[in-house]
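Sequence, please.
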């Protein structure tokens, strides 16, 4: 595993599970630092995506990368606690918490294999970069977050397609229920789920 920011200058790192700004409402087990780790082939492919985007005054804005197995277990525990509805208004307003597993929260995550990443596009002007409006925020568990959702505007769909094409050019495949979710194929270690903490 390598720190992606060492290979891809200008990346915006916003590792949501290392802090409280996520669907659980608190830092998640296994995230000891806001560092984006990926296996080297995936990291190098992502660096190539970033290099192309920088030429057009855009950058990748990263929400999650490698995810320890212990964090996946913490997500499942959270989703199973139906009494805790503290983040419903922001993260799953139209979906019952009891329905989050398995479409939105899985008991085994590709992130743990070190080749899956959650991210968006940001536009950079005069040294400041702002994530583009994709129609929903990251980790909205809702049909509006489906990559091809008809509930978002034409401009938002076009931006999602731009992200999809930029990632696909380097071997990343989108998960259609989440516009931000991509896996590098072929996965370097498809049968290994890692559980060391992010540091």
């Amino acid at each position: 595993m390598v720190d992606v920011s060492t290979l891809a200058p200008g990346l915006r790192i916003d590792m949501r599970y290392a802090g409280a700004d996520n669907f659980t409402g608190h830092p998640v087990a296994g995230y000891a630092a806001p560092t984006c780790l990926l296996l080297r082939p995936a990291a190098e492919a992502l660096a190539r995506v970033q290099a192309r985007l920088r030429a057009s005054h855009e950058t990748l804005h990263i929400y999650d990368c490698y995810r320890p197995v212990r964090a996946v277990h913490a997500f499942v525990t959270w989703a199973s606690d139906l009494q805790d509805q503290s983040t419903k208004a922001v993260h799953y307003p139209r979906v019952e918490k009891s329905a989050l597993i398995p479409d939105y929260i899985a008991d085994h995550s590709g992130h743990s294999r070190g080749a899956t990443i959650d991210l968006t596009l940001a536009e950079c002007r005069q040294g400041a970069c702002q994530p583009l409006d994709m129609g929903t925020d990251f980790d909205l568990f809702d049909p509006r977050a489906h990559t091809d959702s008809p509930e978002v505007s034409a401009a938002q769909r076009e931006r999602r397609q731009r992200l999809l094409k930029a990632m696909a050019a380097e071997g990343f495949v989108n998960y259609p229920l989440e516009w931000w979710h991509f896996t590098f194929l072929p996965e370097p270690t498809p049968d290994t789920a890692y559980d060391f903490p992010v540091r």
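The chain is about 25% helix and 15% strand.
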